[in-house]
Amino acid sequence: MTRILSFSRVSSVCLKEFRHIRRDPRILFLVVLSPAIMLMAFGYLFSFEITRVRLAVLDLDRSSTSRAYVASLLSDGEIQLAASPGSFDEIDQLLLRGVVDVALVLPQSLEADLLAGGRVPVQLIVDGADPLSGRQNGAAVVERSLSFSANLQVQRGVTKQAPVEIRSQVLYNPELKSVWSMVPALLAIVLIVPALAIVISITREKETGSFEGLAATPVQGAEYLLGKLVAHTAFSLLSGLLALVVAVGWFRVPFAGDPLLLILLTVDYLVATMGFAMLVATLVKSQQAAMLIVLLMYFVPSFFLTGLIVPVNPESATAQFIAMALPATHFVTVSRGLFLKGVGLADLQEPAVSLAIMAGVALFLSIAFFRKEAA
Amino acid sequence: MLAQALNLAQKEFIQVWRDKVLMVFVVVGPIIQFVLLAQTAGGDIQHLSLAVLDEDKTSVSRELIKVLDNTPDLDLRYYLGSASQMGPLMDSGKASLGLVIPRRFAANLNSGMPVAVQMLADGSSYLEGGTAIRVAQGALADLIGRGALSGGIDPGGIDLRTRVEFNPLLNIKWHTIPAQLGFIVFQISFLVASLSFARERELGTLEQLRIAPISQAELLAGKATLAMVVGMADFLVVFAICLRVFQLPMRGSFSDLLALTFLFVAANVAMGMVVSVLCSSQQQALLMVFLICVLQVNVSGYLLSVNNMPAGLQMLAEFSPLRHYLTAVREIMLKGSPITLLLDDAVALVLLTVASGAVAWGLLKRRGD
After folding, report:
1. Pick among B99, B109, B165, B329 to test the A interface (most A CBs inside 10 A)
2. Which residues of chain B are within 8 Å of residue A97 when distances are taken between CB atoms?
3. Can you give the pTM of this predicted structure?
4. Handedness of CA A170, A176, A178, A181 (dihedral sign)
5. How many CB atoms lie within 10 A of CB A307?
6. Each residue's pLDDT tens digit, B250-281
């Protein structure tokens, strides 16, 4: 037995693996189709746009101005009047039962004070139990109240027009569509699924005893792992392309970057992910344990700890460390950068190098820990 | 009848006790997972990074910058010397919001000429970019509306005083940790239940159970007991951690929460039984559990409010026990709602339990051999 890596032995393992995947419809589905299907489902589920804000108004003034104010809040339909409570207690009940998201209390002297040019305090009560929605709901009311005040000042002739114009521009995603932001990031998540296949493939051979047959061949551990890696990466890349078609063709996310660079960095990411999966598969004996580890320690944290939805907690060193250690964090940066920003390799050096280092370390460790005889 | 079911349950407990790996996954795993995720997940959408290019450098422009920096949502991190630095900062995602104040801003403002400030937000991260620009627009519009910049008098208007109920600091952990509690209980009770029959069938011991003098009802009850006990025990431990370690408020009644948790665990176990009877191997059951977990987490309102989902998905979400439980646990913990306000969810959980139980029963009858 030679200690040198033989190309022909790597390619024969690879070829065997290719056939294996192609002939097992369940694995083929898991590897090739499921990422695209999952992306399609997730893309819809992760849409954050607030479509309607339910408002309750306690109007103690009952004047034409107070009605005009409420009407201006409701004018574009995003805010809907869901209740007109008669007392503070009723407001508490409405919020408690979750019938409304925000409540306004208009004071008795609203019209008189406004026409006299005063600042009228108006109580805005926001249901903060869901902070993400609460924040957006509150902002929707604030935004419209400011423009009501500005219009009122123009009407009263106090000011002609707003003295300072704020020109705001949202870069990369001008209409702030959550789908444009989420779908490229979710690509990182769905591309973890093919790694399950390599875990199943290695541990199943251990469990069913076909490893024994392997032990009798001249194939080295490193050759065995590399062969598997090449075959699975090739299939996963195919699944990545299908997911890309879903992102661009179905969700209409613009792709501003270089497609070749995306393919290159996707391979970088896939090898890092597969490397981690292979490491688990070499260390653990049963399929069940290996799958649980990959799902619970890799897939689930990738959802919550990578800055995919909310930013990585800046106050927790643990959170920062975990985020950096998870390949998905880096791929989210790569994917959003290439899809939306159209940046080049120079701007993606950091994530690209991090992924390459992870891939290298995971591969090295899997080869080091791999024992053919362990079957 | 009860004695037979208890015997079977006892056998299940002994089995888990002896299988150290399973033991770790059932008892220790969920708790570690909970603490890790709860401690690290979700930075608040605050202290977003602000980059400023101040070409005016007057007291007026500094006032403007100070107003933005003083909001809890924005922190001034980059004070740029030239316009060419803005692009790379936005491209690399280091700044969520860029503000450009042009030359002669204050001078033009004083002489009554139209002036403009420019803001750039990073839209590639939806929540961060969107929050940053909304906050900045609000703060600046308020400042301008009061006439503070032009040195004039306040022309008057609406002065919104915002009060946030139930979670005054809009702490995102108060939202995600109760959800995490529900998820852990869901995951473990569902997983244990779904492996029960699949495991026996794979190992071939289901046949032994079928010929034993145990009725089908006793068999189901015995199998369900283990998953119920594990689910409730995990709930108690994780709930204690919520209050002690993460200092979450508990404004409602504990017995209400306990009752709803019981209904929730029962619904999970019943659904797990269906999966278990359907699958012929543990591997199949695991994959199915994974798929259902992902689906349920996504429609449950774990992060995103159910109210904002498309109508079709809202319908689908009604079939998810997790969705009903997350509503209940948050309402009870954060709002102190009594169970009478949560009857809808309680009834839904009972219906889901009964329906899944009936399906599991029917399937076991057909596939039990």
Report:
1. B165
2. 337, 341
3. 0.82
4. negative
5. 22
6. 999 999 999 999 999 999 999 999 999 888 87
